[in-house]
Amino acid sequence: MESDGSTFEREGDGMIPTTFNYFRPHSIEEALLLLRQGEAAKILAGGQSLIPMMKLRVAEPKTLIDLQGVPELAHVTWAGGHCTVGSLTSHATLAADADLRQKAGALWDAANGLGDPQVRNLGTIGGACAHADPSGDYPAVMLALDACFIVAGEKTREVAAAEFFKGTFETALGAGEILTKITFDAAPRSAYVKLEHAASHYALVGVAVVLVMSRDTIEDARIAITGLADVPFRASGVERSLRGVKGNNVAAIKSACAGAAAGQDVRGDIQASSAYRTAMADIVAARAVRVATDPR
Amino acid sequence: MAPSAMVGARIRRREDPRLITGRATYVDDVKLVGMVHAAFIRSPYAHAKILRLQMAKAKAHPGVLAVFSGADLHAAGMTASLPVAHKLPDLKTPPHYPLAVDEVRFVGEAVAVIVASDPYVARDAAELVEVEYDELPVVVDLEKATTSGAPLVHAALGTNVAYAMPFKAGDPDGAFASADVVVERRLINQRLAPVPIETRGVVAQWDAGAGRVTIHSSTQIPHLLRTQLSLVLGLAENKVRAIAPEVGGGFGSKLNVYAEEAVVAWLAMRLGRPVKWSETRSECFQAMIHGRDQIDDCEIAAKRDGTITGLRVRILANLGAYHQLLTPVIPTLTLLMAPGCYRIANVDIEVKGVFTNTMSTDAYRGAGRPEATYLIERLMDLVARKLELDPADVRRRNFIEPSAFPFTTSTGLTYDSGDYANTMEKALQLADYRGLRTRQAALRKEGRFLGIGLSTYVEVCGMGPSAAMPAAGWDSATIRVEPTGSVTVLTGISPHGQGEETTFAQLVADELGIPIDNIAVVHGDTDIVQYGVGTFGSRGTAVGGSALKLAIETIQAKAIRIAAHQWEANPDDVEYRDGKIGVPTDPSKSMTTAEAGFLAFMGDKLPPGLEPGLDATRRFEPPNFVYPFGTHVCVVEIDSETGQVKIVRYVAVDDCGKVLNPMIVEGQVHGGIAQGMAQALYEEVVYDEYGQLLTGTLMDYAIPHAEQVPHFELDRTVTETTVNPLGVKGVGEAGTIGSTPAVVNAVMDALAPFGVEHIDMPLRPEKLWKAMGPRSNGKVTA
Amino acid sequence: MARVEVEVNGTRHELEGVEPRLLLVHFLRERLGLTGTHIGCDTSSCGACTVLLDGKSVKSCTMFAVQADGRAVTTIEGLGSSAELHPMQEAFWAQHGLQCGFCTTGMIMSAVDLLRRIPNPSEGEIRAGLEGNLCRCTGYENIVAAVRAAAAALAAMETPKTIGELVEVGGR
User: Domain B34-136+200-278, what fold?
Assistant: First the structure.
């Protein structure tokens, strides 16, 4: 389940959803039509975020549009140094992709650490991103990769990752729109590291790092953090401080990562207070940077 | 006893083929013709008056058969309270109705029940029941509940204190006055949820023709459940049949008589149709009993050499809102076991049981003893730290020595047998304690923080002598040698994972010479099995197995008479050897139990006066509890940046007396350690100040998965008991009892360079991080 | 109401009148009577309901039956029988990898999928690979031992070579 149990109010007993109509279109066009016509319609991808919320009756769609009849949405395609991932690609597919590990380690890390094997087998990257859980792993990775979301609707549009995540369970996707693809450039020096909630295994703090390195020196960095605020954010102060730091200088990396959560309204709960999450952001960021400095 | 082929061997479990193939029948797998489904409406408030229930819309929903409130049940004559078993002289016992009648006292208390054709329909209709509440002041905090002016959980009682039990022995005041050192420490034993992977479930069926109700329930105590439900339902006990089908874990949580069991049975009677209720996990967190939840204010007095001279403990126990079956009794076990495996002559201990607006606490694996072991084992380490002695040395100095058994403790228990130093030395050797200390010192210089923790426990189990139990403590067994030579064993205990279908068959196979595949062990159906008390308190083999041993002896005695008659021999010259009947002086004479059973069935070749048939029912009343013990050594390393704890090694040397099947015993220890370790590191039920449950799902409440549990290195010593004819002690709870303090002691040992003495459980990374200080890393010297 | 055509344990089922909201686990248990797949929670946490969907482990409580339309499901009943146990079942038995048995069926299905992905896993890989399944009885010690034993047993078998093929054999 890709939601933090503590972030929404529980209504039901968690097992039985409300009724809905079910459709399985065979093209994006058909899906879009159904989405526009259906009453309180929702897209069903892997269902690993949506179905738990429906069982809790936190989500009560009247129409479900299952995308599994559009298998062309599941793919990982590289063209030069540019990658396109279909929104229906499962976490397991990404997690087993050795090529992806080398070319975009941060995404590979996140896919491997997300949920559990069963969730990874069914859950999709598009579903998880559209769900926009504030403790989700992908949002930070998307931000660090500077990914672009291809959205189908009345017309197809592109949304930058920085514009996509709007709030807790809230994205830039409009009511009649479907996320079809995510694109990003290769990031051979990247990593995602998280500190997990002991029960849910969600990120208490998750940090995605994409580095540009010249020999052993960090030239540029994109650092994105999840688990702390309503939306993932870039740690721009850390990014600046990392420039010029040697990849093997652990002390300098640690020092550059200080204040990673500066300026953020960091949340707290019984598992981890705001102060702890704030402090851990520095630690986890430094660890992620250290992983990213080496080729994967 | 016959030389053993089966007993002591690693025999594969005979219950497993049905379990690993998915062919077992748990209660949710029971499907009866015409069965309908119940769903409970539960209070969202921790304390409130019920003003009005509007059920008309739900009743009108298609597929709904009925909706009943607590008032409806009362009006229909269902006015009995749920039972509490205890022998406490002045216990305050407020009424506890299966459905709340006019007031709710914890979040999740059932106020109404809905019955529908299908669970999906029941769930939909449940949303249509409207309940109006008038909120009342809530008390959740245990200490606050004892203060004057605190909101009262039960206004009619005038207090939240259900009972107070003071106890003194020796001269504690003198001991403290003359002590070289006194350590004072508040130790909090947090609330836990048992979380069997199978939640509760009930299927009840009314046979109108016979006027009988059959209740399938996921329970550890089918017979006690039958007795109690017959009282609650107002039916003769012979009109009630309780069946424990396959039960998916209990850990004490199903050693109870629950509201839902009574209500579902009543619904089946009322509606004349089979009714099923399957608990959701969310309901389970709210309305299945919780465990632990004590504040223990401790003082321990010692001489400079580490000799403990006195112990004072004020135990404040959170009972929850109502008494469940054993709620008030559990904390009294903490009092009894507080001295642990040490000679402590001077004690002053008081238990106070307190009501709060939370779910009831009751027996959860260890039940009162983990709290005792935790406090004494933490205190031993604190004394060692204060006196700058090795924790192992402080223990050595205070152990009850092997020659002192049976040993009567200052709290009045008689420990049967033990050799505490022996398990400790063995464990220290296995762990290479000296080597670990050296490594610890070396790592500290590198800024790495290794911790080594000891726990030397003794626990009380094999529950127990009836005189010392809140209800009966004996158990029963029947052996039937069937005419064609197979054997049926009916046991009064109710195993649900402990493997007695195998261990009991091993015992019978050896002693009666019956091939193990020809032995069936039957349990869990009150219409089939003679009355038995059940499986809990690590009693299955110690009490139920001992009853079986008595039944074996009775069968053997009769079979000997049958064989002697056949051979025209004097029965005194005939005996069992290697599972066969024979005459030692005449090797030509040999008869199997099966052959004797056939003769007993035919009936025409029996000595005069001997009844036909070869069967026996025996009961074993234990003269005392049994006291397994052991030493656990835990090694942890702390991530000083994050506060995360990694268990590097875990060594346990346990002694549960004679072992019938080492594979099964080790499995019990593994599971026990995992649960105790999880208390130390992960688990905690949290209510907020309004009594809302913040840990109501498995997304919030952390029971460990495989990666969060280490590999366990086990060994054992064997110190038999004379309490029962098998020489066995219990092992179901020992691992849980022993492990929690070992882990906490290890973490505190690791944090010693930071000057940290104690952190309350669970040891979440944040707490360690805080205790180490924000810039701790690299600034501490070893 | 929907129509669902699904192959379960090698047998084709065509069911009419399936409510779209019916969870796969209820479909298997209530409509097909396959009660070996258990329900242990309501938050996709415990894994007791794990089945194989086209050979991969999924939580049948977090999937609607209609989503399985046109696909193949293997439950514990299709993995092996008492007469002919799957090597993973055999290993759980031999290594005492279960006590109450409630989590076991889902645990076995997950372990089968684990060996499909990693035929010769280390202890760490086994523990990580089972993170979607909770057991409250065994402390996982003997579950880990069972998965190791099953991996060795499968490696020693000449055919079928992969656990995936074995699932198909069991399902037939």
Answer: Aldehyde Oxidoreductase; domain 3 (3.90.1170)
